[in-house]
Amino acid sequence: MVSRSCVSLLDLASGNMMDFSHTPRALPRIMTVPGIISDLDGDGTNDGNSDTPSTVTLSKKIIVSNFLPLNAQKDLKSGKWSFSFDEDSLLLQMKDGFTENTEVVYVGSLRADVDTSEQEEVSQQLLEEFNCVPTFIPSEIYKKFYHGFCKHHLWPLFHYMLPMSPDHGNRFDRLLWQSYVTTNKIFADKVMEVINPEEDYVWVHDYHLMVLPTFLRKRFHRIKLGFFLHSPFPSSEIYRTLPVRDEILKALLNADLIGFHTFDYARHFLSCCSRMLGLDYESKRGHIGLEYFGRTVYIKILPVGIHTGRIESALNHPSSSIKVKEIQKQFKGKRLVVGVDDMDVFKGISLKLLAMEHLLQQNSELRGKLVLVQIVNPVRSSGKAVQEAKMETYTITKRINDTFGFPGYEPVVLIDRHVPFCEKTAYYALAECCIVNAVRDGMNLIPYKYIVCRQGTPKMDEALGVAPGWRHTSTLVVSEFTGCSPSLSGAIRVNPWDIEAVSNALNVAINMPDLEKQLRHEKHYRYVSSHDIAYWACSFMQDLTRACEYHYSKRCWGIGFGLNFRILSLSPSFRKLSNDYIITAYKRTSKRAIFLDYDGTVVAQTSIPKTPSPEVISVLNNLCSDPRNNVFIVSGRGKKSLSDWFAQCENLGIAAEHGYFLRWSGMSDWETRSLAADFDWKNTAKPVMKLYTETTDGSYIETKESALVWHHEDADPDFGSCQAKELLDHLENVLANDPVVVKRGQNIVEVKPQGVTKGFVAEKVLSLMIANGKPPDFVLCIGDDRSDEDMFESMSNTAYGSSLASAPAIFACTVGQKPSKARYYLDDTVDVLALLQCLADASKSKSSSTETQVSFDNFV
């Protein structure tokens, strides 16, 4: 709905036609107090959020869309521009979802060309009078941006139309893409002119501005940024045909909250993130989130609503009552079905007409009684496809009217002109049924408007001749490919391509018993009236506020160039481990424990040969030769592989299968975790894993002595992930009474005995050093995956939890910049080996005359 601050302007613009009523209900507001910004914030000159946020300045909402919610007209005589708010604009109506004292600024383009010499004056006028900031895009660039890339590439693709041939869409044009990027950059510059990045919220709308989040995030690392897509988001198979697919996907992930009308659209987006970027989503307390370089990007699923107050005001307007009586007289004795669509290839108008034709062919009793009033909105884009759709519409209409019409009766009334809103509401109020037959549509609010009009008002009921207290009715036939379909559970859903089924649905709708029509209508009206535009806007802003709560509790770095830019957001205490820093501590100490993961730490995950290189063997031997060091490889791999690979490292300790097997050195025997040696649970788990392996192409089972692991890294990402979730649940059920744990990791599902973790290895080694009277004064642990997090936590608890004279120097280090319990990170295995080599060199340079190595021989 429109806020009170705009009502007077609307009244002036429309001659007080719309007397808006306000929705008294509102969602509970969320108040967020930002945290403290770290002083260490990367490039402070590039981040507007580098200072403590002000508690005095009130935040405003910056709404960014391709078009401003304005009408513009130039007086040809005086040369003066006049502007007024566009009462139909969703951007204007959504202000009712904000508190009354919220300042709203709009950024977008005008629907009129303003001469360069007038732009500065017009900009000042729009900002002062309407709180609007116009983006004056050069006409040649705008043509390539809007009519080129948006309408000829994105719009067809997002509606599942691929450019298979020149007759079915344009081939990708890099120049059009450059214009798209340039236009988004101009929008970003305009936002920067009016934003207070510490306080304000920015809400970007629709597919025209999908790379805008990257430009804004690059300028202000902690900008509070939401994006809502009003069109469908196609399946990954369709989206991945776009040559600039990565750039757009990564740009969207620079937002804090991304909104979609339906779960299907969100599911397709998440699938693209999984397949193209390897990102998995999690649902926590009802909120879907993607972890992206330390930031959580939230996904919002909520269909937009309508402004019920405006529709009710239109129903109460005298012109609506007059029009209702005219239509009643024109169609006296007839039953009306209404359809309102843009002249668009995706709206399915011709399919709707064919269904009407089939209905009249099969039901002769309806001839002369049933009329389809098809209102066609003016075209918003031109092209061969639109002209062909228009020609087909007229051809089918003429054929139906020639075949089934007679003097005084036309089965199809095609209204192809601008229809005032009051006239539309009159048709809605009189029609027994509304049909939306789009083959693909983002949302489509026509059914919502129809329901409110059928509910009527006292004035409209009087014009219709309806007695007070009359229970209103309505029926809907809705394509299952429209975004509004899931929310209208009482509608008759149809496949628009099945002409016979659509025809039968129309027949069912108009012949439905009145009681059923009433019940369906009441159900729909309850939903539409409670989930209006104010509810939608308020709900989105609440989720955006929640998504930005922790902006100031982390340090931010900008990484990547161009449209590959993204923010790395990490804990203030998390930093790269400096070789010089750790060597200083290393040289001061004499009782050291070093724990190293294998895959992804000393050997790259992408390495085809998994055996350690000669360089790795050399570095480990040099470290182990220092009697002050106790070095362990802690891996999930089997003991045979590890003992064979590290046979040359006699002083190296090895923990295999996450610590189920432990060997203190090459000269000692393998120890087994002191647990029940009953592996009967394998007889239960393995058949279940085999079942999922047979049904999941690319998956396989790894059998360890202590565990079973189901791998799906070579399976289809979506299907493999889905099967992994099912397998996890299945195994947890069948193994509920066994002493095992079922865990899901990176492309794996593992079953292993309880208490077997890498953390146990660190705890045992450190405890034995303390018990031996040689408490560690230096602890280094490096790993790269989830299983290593247990090791980071355990070594800190053991070292700090013991009653030691002085706290040891602890270095918990993860590989890769990502959220972790570790305080340090190294970029990759190259950095890890370089660090280990520096430590080995430091050991060589210092005399090792004093033997302080802990001997475990007395404890094994």
TrEMBL record:
Protein name, UniProt field: alpha,alpha-trehalose-phosphate synthase (UDP-forming)
Entry GO MF terms: alpha,alpha-trehalose-phosphate synthase (UDP-forming) activity; trehalose-phosphatase activity
EC number, as in UniProt: 2.4.1.15
Organism: Salix koriyanagi
A GO cellular-component term linked to this record: cytosol
CDD domains named among the record's database cross-references: GT20_TPS (cd03788), HAD_TPP (cd01627)
UniProt similarity note: In the C-terminal section; belongs to the trehalose phosphatase family.
Gene3D superfamilies: Glycogen Phosphorylase B, HAD superfamily/HAD-like
Pfam families from the UniProt entry: Glyco_transf_20 (PF00982), Trehalose_PPase (PF02358)
Keyword Nucleus found: no
GO biological process: trehalose biosynthetic process
InterPro entries xrefs: Glyco_trans_20, HAD-like_sf, HAD-SF_hydro_IIB, HAD_sf, Trehalose_PPase
Keywords from the UniProt entry: Glycosyltransferase, Phosphoprotein, Transferase
UniProt catalytic activity: D-glucose 6-phosphate + UDP-alpha-D-glucose = alpha,alpha-trehalose 6-phosphate + UDP + H(+)
